[in-house]
Specification:
Helix content of chain A: over 70%
Distance between the termini of chain A: 28 Å
Largest interface: A-B, 41 and 42 residues
Strand content of chain B: under 5%
Number of strands of chain B: 4
Shape of chain A: globular
Shape of chain B: globular
Largest sheet of chain B: 2 strands, antiparallel
Oligomer: heterotrimer
Largest sheet of chain A: 2 strands, antiparallel
Number of strands of chain A: 4
Radius of gyration of chain A: 21 Å
């Protein structure tokens, strides 16, 4: 029954299964296991980014397509909810309309980009997605009348999902609407993740992987490569947009640097490569690792930096703001030495 | 000896349409300039913008030329190219600040000497960096485009962070040297002196590159290598050394572009190179990957368009360049002057 | 054995997952034209490319002029005196004929006497000296490819189907040039499907099948024995 839920795609490694279980339990019980606002926020971010990175893995890991437009789709979903909530007022209808229109916009844009890639070489595609994503980011910042520009938008979500909604105590923790909000995010991310697992383990997913391995051959056998790639791009885009919508619902604020920046694109790349491309579970590991590092590693680095402040250069290298550099180094090492990522490594160990 | 029958190839009569088609890329520049004039109206503004556009175009060309040549010759996509731009800017600016007396003086000679030293320092550092980058990061992933993209992006991140480590987290402001401040007026239009200098440097570099590519043995090897690397090796040339050389040159050029861009903006940040990469990629794609001439024309078009549109409707500036790229790719999917690769 | 310019021992080459050369043993005598024959797809081009180094031999030994070059890089083999005229000619279309020829000589300078001789042997090249090589006809490109390799003295020429698709008049120009090469003391390993050229030029012959050399001997012996031809290559060479 569990195997069916996972669409037959089992972790295939005891350690991996253990890690995944731990993550699942921690995320499922986050409001009760961890204290404090920050911990809950971290958990929500992990859920959202697991979904976002998994949707990117569909494209990169399973489809072999490098695209830099992913944050754009994320941003479309986020701004969809934000704009709907701002102009329609708070309410579930705004959330729903925002999410759906964000996802639709993402699909349309993905279609256009996919069709355009018909005419150009694959290498151009990566650069073009970069250009388009940058243009959208600039546009959003500049039409500030509509989008709040650099400052972004703050808006209200249905009251029942906020901390103003007191619902009493349970298991020693104060339950408020915020907890409800968290579980909305958690379950939506979980369901969509399982859906992605379904997709990559379906005949569609297998053809996609065959195309990744050898597109000439796939075309020769009779599969219309362009169609499969375009569909993959659209699915990936829609899921990313929904992740963005969840992000908007959770944060109640969207801005260009939290949803559209190139930095987020780089973060996604790091997460998917370190976790393991083409595995879906890699997204879980990668996102968890990254967000935890982002939140807590910086503290560690800060202490280390102060401890070594007498030495030259070392404190600067350990400065908490430089955490991205270390992740960048880890990223490069991953590409060379464990291209299958952590998940791949764990699976290989089990096999040997 | 039998006399071979006369196989005169039929390229004697090239029709007018064919000639026009060949010259079209070059003609786009004057066409755009004229369109700009029509759209802007006031000759003075138009002249200022045209000079700005050309200056910006030249600087983008300098940055893009390395990237496009590396791709054409080595089939390597370097997403880390922007890091060299940033490093070049920081090294150059540091030298200029150190030579503050020279840049502050009202002497053109001292000013230009300071700029020259800054440029040399920047190019030397980025050149050496390029050599290291090629060895450590690029060489292991020859032939694997996906890994190249990933690994060079990683390199970009790490180098940018290292800039923060060495130079601190803030942006650095830089004033142009005394004699390069201000503008000259001509026909009622104000044209910044520095921008005119940038146009001059860009032209000189373009001509120099063309001369090296077309008149020297090494240029010959590079041009042949872009078309058919294995054959060049089979003739006894050490293509790997040429690769490394071109990569170093491309990185040094990026560094030069960085210094020039830094002086243009009068402020530098660690992420400036990364931000330029969008336009650099657009230029490389429009021009046709591997073509220096194509990159030159593409860069001028992009620079001009950016400046014209920024004046007319600032919000649409970047979008207009995407539109330009789309239009050109619809017309010529491989770029304006693609290199014919032997497969 | 100094009467052999080239010797391959049990050479295996893989291309992707395909095991193309399955133990090639080949001897190329010095100062002779050796024909490499066989049906399409048996590995003749792969053999030449393995000798040149463009494909790396998985195992086995390649001895050139007594030296083991099995692991040497392509450019080193070229500098040691091996010239390669590939099947696709390897012409640089964007470069002029003059520039193509200049690349043939490592020093960059085409010696005047050599240049005169080449232009005499291939007059078409002189006519289009300053034109882009891409504008040449197929036969002229082929001539350029050979001429370029002859811009410098080489000890061993590896030539892959130089007469494919060419008119008879040009073929005889080609054959004459190859004869001149031999007269200068160079050795030639020639893959050729055109039987009259093979018969006219070849001193020794090696026949390949399924990634191996299955027969070696004197050319005359092969050309006179139709039955042998049919057995080795599936058809009589006269049919070509």
């Amino acid at each position: 029954m569990l195997v069916k839920l996972l669409s037959g795609d089992q972790p295939r490694s005891a350690i991996l299964t253990a890690i995944l279980l731990v993550i699942l339990i921690c995320l499922a019980g986050a409001p009760f296991i961890f204290d404090g606002v920050r911990a809950l926020d971290t958990a929500a971010r992990i859920c959202i980014f697991i979904l976002l990175v998994a949707s990117y893995d569909l494209l990169l890991g399973y489809g072999g397509i490098v695209s830099f437009a992913h944050t754009m789709f994320f941003g479309l979903g986020a701004y969809g909810v934000a704009l709907a909530s701002t102009y329609m007022g708070r309410g579930f209808d705004a959330l729903l309309l925002g999410s759906v229109s964000g996802a639709l916009a993402a699909v349309v844009l993905a279609l256009l980009i996919g069709l355009f890639s018909l005419r150009v070489r694959a290498i151009f595609f990566a650069m073009i997605t970069l250009a388009v994503a940058s243009a959208v980011a600039v546009l959003v910042s500049q039409f500030s009348g509509l989008t709040g520009g650099e400052d972004g938008l703050t808006y209200k979500i249905p009251r029942v999902l906020t901390s103003a909604n007191r619902m009493g105590d349970f298991l020693g923790t104060r339950i408020s609407g915020k907890i409800l909000n968290y579980y909305l995010v958690f379950f939506a991310a979980l369901i969509l993740f399982l859906l992605l697992l379904r997709i990559v383990n379906s005949p569609f997913g297998r053809v996609l992987q065959a195309i990744r391995e050898n597109d000439f051959r796939a075309e020769a056998i009779g599969y219309r490569v362009v169609w499969y790639r375009t569909v993959a791009t659209c699915l990936s885009a829609a899921t990313a947009a929904l992740a963005g919508s969840l992000f908007a619902i959770w944060l109640r604020y969207v801005g260009p640097d939290t949803t559209l920046s190139f930095e987020i694109m780089l973060d996604i790349l790091l997460m998917v490569v370190i976790g393991g491309m083409g595995t879906m579970y890699g997204a879980v590991i990668g996102a968890t690792l990254f967000i935890l590092a982002q939140t807590y590693l910086q503290n560690l680095m800060g202490t280390a930096s102060e401890a070594t402040s007498a030495l030259p250069l070392i404190p600067d290298l350990l400065d908490p703001d430089r955490w991205l550099m270390w992740l960048g180094i880890l990223f490069i090492l991953s590409v060379y030495f464990f291209p299958t990522g952590i998940v791949g490594r764990l699976r290989a160990r089990r096999a040997s | 000896m039998t006399a071979a029958p006369d196989h005169r190839p039929t390229f004697a009569n090239v029709s007018l349409t064919e000639r026009l088609d060949e010259a079209m890329p070059l003609l786009l520049i004057p066409i755009l300039v004229v369109l700009g004039f029509v759209a802007i109206g006031a000759p003075a503004s138009w002249l200022t913008l045209t000079v700005s556009g050309l200056a910006m175009g030249m600087m983008i060309f300098i940055m893009a030329s390395g990237l496009t040549l590396v791709f054409g010759l080595m089939d390597v996509i370097n997403f880390g190219h922007g890091a060299f731009v940033s490093v070049g800017a920081f090294v150059g600016v540091s030298v200029l600040i150190a030579l503050g007396d020279w840049t502050g003086a009202a002497s053109l000679l001292l000013n230009m000497s300071a700029v020259l030293l800054a440029v040399i320092a920047a190019m030397a550092v980025t050149g050496i960096m390029g050599w290291g980058f090629e060895r450590i990061i690029v060489k292991p992933v020859y032939g694997a485009h996906l890994k190249q993209i990933l690994v060079t992006v990683g390199g970009l991140i790490v180098i940018e962070q290292l800039i923060h480590v060495i130079w601190g987290p803030d942006e650095i402001f830089i004033n142009r040297p005394e004699t390069l401040k201000g503008a000259v007026t001509f026909a009622g239009a104000a044209m910044e002196k520095y921008r005119l200098l940038a146009v001059g440097i860009g032209l000189v570099l373009f001509v120099a590159m063309r001369v090296v590519l077309r008149r020297t043995k090494i240029g010959l090897i590079v041009r042949a290598g872009v078309e058919n690397g294995p054959m060049v090796e089979a003739l006894g040339y050490r293509l790997r050394l040429v690769f490394v050389g071109v990569f170093i040159a491309g990185s040094a050029l990026a560094g030069l572009g960085g210094v020039m861009w830094g002086l243009y903006q009068e402020v530098i940040t660690a992420g400036m190179g990364e931000r330029m990469m969008v336009l650099v990629f657009i230029v490389a794609i429009i021009g046709g990957l591997g073509s220096v001439e194509g990159a030159f024309i593409g860069a001028l078009l992009v620079g001009l368009l950016q400046n014209y549109v920024a004046f007319l409707e600032p919000k649409l500036a970047l979008v207009s360049n995407i539109a330009l790229m789309t239009a050109i790719l619809m017309w010529r999917p491989q770029g304006m002057m693609p290199v014919v690769k032997a497969k | 054995m100094s009467d052999l310019i080239l010797s391959l021992k049990d050479v295996h080459t893989d291309i992707a997952q395909y095991h193309i050369l399955q133990g090639v043993d080949l001897q190329v005598p010095r100062g002779q034209v050796t024909m490499l024959l066989g049906r399409n797809g048996v590995g003749k081009t792969t053999t030449l490319k393995t000798i040149m180094g463009q494909w790396t031999a998985k195992s086995g030994e390649i001895l050139y002029d007594g030296q083991d070059i099995t692991r040497k890089p392509v450019f080193a083999r070229a500098r040691a005196g091996i010239g390669f005229v590939p099947e696709d000619m390897g012409i640089f279309s964007d470069l002029t004929v003059e520039e193509n020829m200049a690349l043939g000589s490592l020093s960059g300078k085409l010696e005047p006497k050599r240049k005169d001789w080449l232009l005499n042997a291939f007059p078409a090249l002189g006519t289009f000296w300053k034109s882009e090589a891409g504008n040449l006809s197929g036969g002229q490109k082929q001539m350029l490819s050979i001429a370029r390799t002859m811009a410098e003295d080489r000890a061993l020429y590896l030539i892959d189907e130089p007469t494919k698709g060419l008119a008879p008049a040009i073929i005889s120009t080609m054959a004459q040039a190859l004869r001149e090469l031999k007269a200068q003391g160079a050795s030639v390993l020639l893959v050729e499907q055109n039987f009259s050229v093979a018969k006219a030029l070849g001193d020794s012959a090696a026949v390949m099948d399924d990634g191996r050399v299955i027969w070696t001997g004197v050319m005359a012996e092969l050309s006179e024995n139709k039955g042998l031809q049919e057995r080795l290559m599936g058809l009589s060479m006269e049919a070509h």
